[in-house]
Amino acid sequence: MDVMPKWAEVILVPLISLLLAAVISALVILAIGEDPVAAAKLMVTGALGSTYGWGYTLYYATNFMFTGLAVSIAFHARLFNIGGEGQAALGGLGVALACLYIPWPHWSLALVGAAVAAGLFGAAWAAMPAYLQARRGSHIVITTIMFNFIAASLLNYVLVNLLRPKGSMDPASARFPDAVHLPTLHELLAPLGIAFSKSAPANVSLLVAVAACVFLWFLIWRTRLGYEIRSFGHSESAAKYAGMPPFKIIMVTMLISGALAGMMAINNVMGEAERLVLNSVEGAGFIGIAVALMGRSHPLGVFIAAILFGFLYQGGAELALWTAIPRELIVVIQALVILFTGALDNMVRMPLERMFLALRMRKEV
Amino acid sequence: MDFLTLIQLLDSAVRLATPLLLACLAGLYSERAGIFDIGLEGKMLAAAFFSAAIAALTGSVWIGLLAGIAASLALSAIHGVASITFRGNQLISGVAINFLAAGLTVLIAQSWFKQGGRTPSLIGNARFEPITLPFAEALQNVPVLGPIYYELISGHSILVYIAFAAVPFTWWLLFRTRFGLRLRAVGENPAAVDTAGVSVVGLRFAAVGICGILCGIAGAYLSTALQAGFVKDMAAGRGFIALAALIFAKWRPWYALYACLLFGLFGALETRPDVIENLIGVKVQIQLLAALPYLMTVIILAGFVGKAIPPRAGGEPYVKER
């Protein structure tokens, strides 16, 4: 029997971890001589106080949903995919090739085509580390880290030598044609009579990300494959004994994970930049780790955590704009969230478990 | 390629290999004791900032070095508490440490110096200066050996010599002392060490501590010897190349030296692509050179060229039997 009730496990533990991270972040802001309360207010108004702010918050959240889901499904099979960064970069390459070289008649078809290309490229980039883990036993964390760096070099090469238009000094691809322009939330909501900021980059990929959350929930808890993935994550030997082949589970899980990370590119490359630039992922692959940890690898948790991190990102940008607090504050907060919800999980959990145990003992007496 | 170019190339390879070597040996202690450490990068970065910042404020590079080591040790302590005391996931803890260092260094640098996340340039005693070894000037004109001694062996900062001396020392400590035997045992079979009445937790903390000290020296070298001051994100993936070198060396000290020198040479060649072109007649993309350490590590990991087997208890928290 579990020591803690389910609500404590699902809500209380992450909340306390989050609170700890917030308190330390506030102390950090104090230590550099700024006012944490004013900073928090500025972040809230900057990120949530206008449709412009919401547009950016949701744009970032879309990225983090994809990468958070990618890390989550791997976590379910007890695999740590730290390579979301590289897989998303490759996804960007897939989107760029699909948008530049296929004459799409309409954005909706282009979105499907680009998403497939992004998913395939991302999955391909995850396939090699997955194969090495499944067949050769090389640690997937190390190989995915290496593949992040290899991806960075590869994209640098492709952008500088192959995709860069003649005469351009910028290491970036040409602009995508107008036909593949994805409608922004402004364009989507205007027919419904809802006014939304014109210049915010949130776009239709947000809906794709939400659909991906639902899809992943269905996959993990309502299909045979999901059952196999979870069994494998709980006990590899038990899964093997029940006739579930580890090779297949590792490969399929990592391919789905890579595809999800890669599909992030429909948001940042196709939806926002509308061309492929160097370092287009901007660390979103790593934020996926924090998002997955905070969301307890549950799609709904990932959805909420992604919006929270979207808020932090947009709020942090506003802070950097209006105060002397640099953008790197978000990196610190992100680190603290990973530390408390991930590595120091037991520090929060152990005293709580003791508390609930004591409560129950008293009840029984 | 003429002789002098070769010497210059090797000289810069040694310079670039030094931080890799220190970080690689740092990881070696930690991983041999069963604690995975992907936070080498973060520890180096924190040390690079604090050593440059304190050196700039006090004017003494030695106090700076101590501050750098202290910063790195503080992060090591977090890693130790998370992965040994609370038996958390060592990889996740490493990731957190990397981000913590990346964010805090810029935040504090901006707050202290207001120069866009960098420290002021270090001059004079606030920096490790090159040391000229005895007779280097006198022997400079001796053919072949003279330039090798003068250009390649002499004229580095003290930290370079410390790094190279750390290789035989590490070998001796790990393979010729009781402490080393126990440290390696705790990475292979902690239960056996526990049964023998030796503290698993103590040994693992010691290993993580040594790792912190070495990462501290590596970081200090970056900002006070290789360059004169800290700039944002100056570790630039070196912690991960060191990790690659560690796997490449299969967790052995002497091989770590060779791996780091090789990866240092790649780094040196990245700045001189013309040399390779003259040498093999083919233009090699610099991006390929940048990716080579990682590619080679993946090939090693794949087991196509020898098999890299990590310490058996690596990454597993130890739970005492009751």
How would you characterize this protein structure?
The complex is a heterodimer of chains A (365) and B (322). With 365 residues, chain A is mainly α. Chain A has a domain at 61-289. Chain A has 16 helices and no strands. Chain A has helices spanning 6-31, 36-48, 51-76, 84-101, 107-136, 140-163, 185-189, 205-222, 224-234, 236-241, 246-263, 265-273, 284-294, 299-322, 328-343, 345-364. The longest helix of chain A has 30 residues, at 107-136. The radius of gyration of chain A is 21 Å and the shape is globular. Chain B has 322 residues and is mainly alpha-helical. Chain B has one domain (3-236). The longest helix of chain B has 30 residues, at 3-32. Chain B is globular and about 70 Å long. The chains are: A mainly alpha (365), B mainly alpha (322). Chains A and B meet through helix 5, helix 6, helix 13, helix 15 and helix 16 of A and helix 3, helix 4, helix 10 and helix 13 of B.
**C-alpha geometry of chain A:** globular
Major sheet attributes of chain A: none
Q: Report the helical percentage of chain A.
A: over 70%
Low-confidence stretches of chain B: none
Mean pLDDT level of chain B: 87
Proportion of beta-strand residues of chain B? under 5%
Number of helical segments of chain B?
Answer: 13
The greatest interface between two protein chains, and residues involved on each side, is: A-B, 49 and 48 residues
Main beta sheet strand tally, sense and closure of chain B: none
Mean pLDDT of chain A: 90
The best one-word shape of chain B is globular
Termini Cα gap of chain B: 66 Å
